[in-house]
Design goal:
heterodimer; A: about 130 residues; mainly beta; 7-stranded mixed beta sheet; about 5% helix; elongated; B: about 110 residues; 4-stranded antiparallel beta sheet; 11 strands; about 0% helix; globular
Chain lengths: ~130, ~110
C-alpha cells in the first residue's frame, strides 16, 4: 500500500520561502518514477487548491498559471521523495499543504496513468506570521 | 480554467437519509471527475473516479452519476461516519480544479 509521509509543520515570515517534503513508501521504484506527485493546499476553513505536479522519472512539472512564478516542485527518484518549494510567502499562504499521488498501474511492460488522486499524505501545516 | 460549481455548500441531514450533492463543470470534461471525502483534520479520501466508478474499499452506499456536464454524488443511507465535507475535482485538463465543497452536517 502506497504511503506518503510529509515533513513537519513550518512557521515562516512574510517574504521567505518554505520547502515541504513528501516521502513515498510501499510502492515499486518504477511506479514512483512513472506516476505524478501532486501538491494541493487548503487554507483554514477553505477548499482544496491544486498547486501543480511532477513526474519524478522525467522531472516534468506542471503548474497552474497563478503559481508558475512562485512554486517549484522537484523529486528525487533515489530517495523516493518529492518536494514543493513556495517562495515570496504572504499571510494568504497559511494553509495545510498535501502531497497526493495519482492512480496508475503497470502491466505487460506498459504503465497507465489514471490522473485522479488516489494516495494522500497527512498534510503539512504552514503558518506565515510576522 | 475549468470551473467546478458544487451545490449545496452545506447540507443538513439525519442518519439514514438519502443525500445528493451536485457538481457542474463549466465545459465538457467527459467523465474525468473524481469525488473525495474529507473529515475534519484529515486528508481527503478518494471515493469515486471516472464519474461513477467506486474506489476499492469504499462503501457501496456511495455512488456517482453524470448527465452531460452535471455530476452527482449520492449517499444512499447516511451513516455517522459520512458527516464530512465532499469535493468534486475535474482531471480532464490542467489545471486540475476542485469544487468549493459540500459540508454534510447532522440535522
Amino acid at each position: 500500500q502506497v504511503q506518503l509521509l510529509q515533513s513537519g509543520a513550518e512557521v515562516k515570515k512574510p517574504g521567505s520561502s518554505v520547502k515541504v517534503s513528501c516521502k513515498a513508501s510501499g510502492d515499486t521504484f518504477t511506479n514512483f518514477r512513472t506516476f505524478s506527485i501532486n501538491w494541493v493546499r487548503q487554507a483554514p476553513g477553505q477548499g482544496l487548491e491544486w498547486m501543480g505536479n511532477i513526474f519524478p522519472g522525467s522531472g516534468r512539472a506542471n503548474y497552474p498559471q497563478r503559481f508558475v512564478d512562485r512554486v517549484t516542485i522537484t523529486a528525487d527518484e533515489f530517495t523516493r521523495t518529492a518536494y514543493m518549494q513556495l517562495n515570496s510567502l504572504t499571510f494568504d499562504d497559511t494553509a495545510v499543504y498535501y502531497c497526493a499521488r495519482e492512480a496508475g498501474f503497470c502491466s505487460g511492460g506498459s504503465c497507465y496513468s489514471q490522473e485522479y488522486l488516489q494516495h494522500w499524505g497527512q498534510g503539512t501545516p504552514v503558518t506565515v506570521a510576522s | 480554467d475549468i470551473q467546478m460549481t458544487q451545490s449545496p455548500s452545506t447540507l443538513s441531514a439525519s442518519v439514514g437519509d438519502r443525500v445528493t450533492i451536485t457538481c457542474r463543470a463549466s465545459q465538457n470534461i467527459y467523465s474525468w471527475l473524481a469525488w473525495y471525502q474529507q473529515r475534519p483534520g484529515e486528508a481527503p479520501k478518494l471515493l469515486i473516479y471516472k464519474a461513477s466508478t467506486l474506489q476499492s474499499g469504499v462503501s457501496s452506499r456511495f455512488s456517482g452519476s453524470q448527465s452531460g456536464t452535471d455530476f452527482t454524488l449520492t449517499i444512499s443511507s447516511l451513516q455517522p461516519d459520512d458527516f464530512a465535507t465532499y469535493y468534486c475535482q475535474q482531471y480532464n485538463s490542467h489545471p486540475w480544479t476542485f469544487g468549493q465543497g459540500t459540508r454534510v452536517e447532522i440535522k
